């Protein structure tokens, strides 16, 4: 399940992810992001995954990188999550080479939004 975060504005969009996303949820999220890109151009993206723990977090992030479309149009991507799985994970910037990446812990969420909104 995911939801769009209230702080989203002006081409900077954040989602809160809790658990695995269904194919329908990916379709809805991709449609929303594609519509936003048509309106404002390249977007910045924050993915809040602090409630996803351990290997589940890494697996979910890898799944998301496979299912999100048009990532070549993302400028900045912030991932907020457990330091444990972020440090253990691979380099996702290889999947999305055109975007700037930065990882944040849950206590750095405000900093993550500031960085994403640049």
Distance between the termini: 27 Å
What is Rg?
Answer: 13 Å
CATH class term: Alpha Beta
Helix content: 25-40%
Write the topology of this structure:
Elements: E1 2-4, E2 12-17, H1 23-40, E3 43-48, H2 54-67, E4 74-80, H3 83-88, E5 100-104, H4 109-117
Parallel strand pairs: 2-3, 3-4, 4-5
Antiparallel strand pairs: 1-2
Structure in words:
With 118 residues, the protein is α/β, with parallel strands linked by helices. It has a single domain, classed as Transcription Regulator spoIIAA, CATH 3.30.750. Helices cover 40% and strands 23% of the residues. It is built from 4 helices and 5 strands. The protein has a 5-stranded mixed sheet. α2 (54-67) links the parallel β3 (43-48) and β4. The mean pLDDT is 84.
Keywords:
118 residues; alpha/beta; Transcription Regulator spoIIAA; 5-stranded mixed sheet; 4 helices; 5 strands; 40% helix
Task: Sum this structure up briefly.
With 118 residues, the chain is of the alpha/beta class. It is built from 4 helices and 5 strands. The longest helix has 18 residues, at 23-40.
């Amino acid at each position: 399940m995911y939801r769009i975060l209230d702080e989203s504005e002006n081409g900077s969009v954040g989602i809160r992810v809790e658990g695995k996303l269904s194919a329908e949820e990916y379709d809805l999220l991709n449609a929303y992001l594609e519509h936003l890109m048509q309106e404002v151009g390249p977007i910045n993206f924050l993915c809040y995954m602090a409630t996803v723990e351990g290997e589940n977090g890494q697996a979910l992030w890898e799944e998301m990188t496979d299912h999100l479309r048009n990532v070549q149009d993302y400028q900045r991507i912030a991932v907020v999550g457990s330091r444990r799985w972020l440090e253990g994970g691979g380099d996702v910037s290889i999947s999305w080479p055109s975007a700037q990446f930065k990882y944040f812990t849950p206590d750095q969420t405000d900093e993550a939004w500031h960085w994403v909104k640049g």
